[in-house]
Amino acid sequence: METLKYILKRLAMAVLSLFIITTIIFLLLRMMPIEGYLGAGYEKMSAETIENSLRNLGLLDPIHVQLKNFYVNLFHGDLGTSWIYRPKVPITEILAPKIPISLTLGALAMLLALVVGIPLGVVMSRFKGKWPDKLGTGFIVLLNAVPVVVFYLFIQIYGSKALGVSMLFNKNDVSTWILPIICLSLGNIANYAMWMRRYMVDQLNSDYVKLAMAKGVSRRDIMYKHVFRNAFVPMVQLLPSSLLLTIMGSIYVESLFSIPGMGGLLIDVIKRQDNTMVQALVLIYACMGILGLLLGDLLMAVVDPRIKLSKQGGAR
After folding, report:
1. What is the pLDDT of residues 36-75, one digit of tens each?
2. SS3 211
3. What three-state secondary structure class fits 308?
4. How many CB atoms lie within 10 A of CB 235?
5. Is 99 helix (H, G, I), strand (E, B) or coil?
6. What's the pTM?
7. Residue 254, CB-side half-sphere exposure with 13 Å CA sphere
8. CA-wise closest residue to 257 among 100, 56, 102, 85
9. CA 223, CA 122: separation in Å to the nearest integer?
10. To 5 degrees, how large is the angle CA 128–CA 131–CA 134?
C-alpha cells in the first residue's frame, strides 16, 4: 500500500508539472507573430482573409477557451496541424516516421555510455591517483570544459575520414549511425565515469571495507562484490540527467548529421516559425524529461532499501 501511495504521489506531481509546462508553452506561443499559424502566403492575404483564417483556427477566441480546446484535442491524440513545415498535414503524421529514429539513436547512445562510462569510473577508482585515474580525469575535464559543438564537429570531420564513412546520416547504412551515437553518448560517458568514481571512492573509505581488508579479503572481491554493488545504487539518480543530456544533444546532432529525427525537426520548425509544430515538439520533449525524472525517482526507491516510501522514519 505504501508503495502504491508513493507511486501515485509521484505520478500526480509529474502530471502537475507537465500541465504547468504545457500551459506556459501554450501561452507563450500565443504571443508569437500570427504568421506562424497562417503559412507562407500570409503577406499576400488581405486583412479580412487573415481575420477569417484566425477565426477558423480559434485564435480569436478568449485565451481560456483556446486553452480548453487545446487540452480537449490533446486528450484525443490531436497535436494540431502544421501550417508552414508541411501545410495542412497533421503533426502526428509528420512525427510518425521520425520518432523511431530519434528513440533508436538515443537508446543506443545511452547503452554505449553505460558500457563505457561505468567501467571507466571503476578503473579510475581502483587506480586512484595513478595514470589511469589521471587520464580519465583529464578526459572528463576536457569534455566539460570545451563546448560540445567543438567535439561534434571534430568527430564528424575527422571521424568520418578515419572510419571511411559518410559525414551525413543514412538510415539504410548502419555505418553512418556510428558517429552520431558517439556524439550523443559523450556527455553521459563523462557523467557516469565521474560519479561512478566518486561513489566507489566513498565506499572504499567506509568502515566495512576497512574491516574486510583487515580480515584478509582480497581487494578484487571487495571492489566487485561489495564496493561496486553499493556504489551502483545511487547511479540510478543519473537516469533523468542522462535522458535530458541525450535529448539536448540530439537537437544539435540530428541537425549536424542531417538525421530525419525529432531533434533536427525542432530547429527547422523554430526557424520557420511554425508555432503549432514548435508547441507539439516542446510538449513531447517535456514529457520525455518529466518521464525520466519520474523513472529515476521510482527506481531509486526500488533499488535502495534505505529510502522510505512513507513519511514516517525519514521519508524521501
Report:
1. 677 666 667 777 887 887 787 777 888 888 899 889 988 8
2. helix
3. strand
4. 20
5. helix
6. 0.77
7. 26
8. 102
9. 9
10. 70
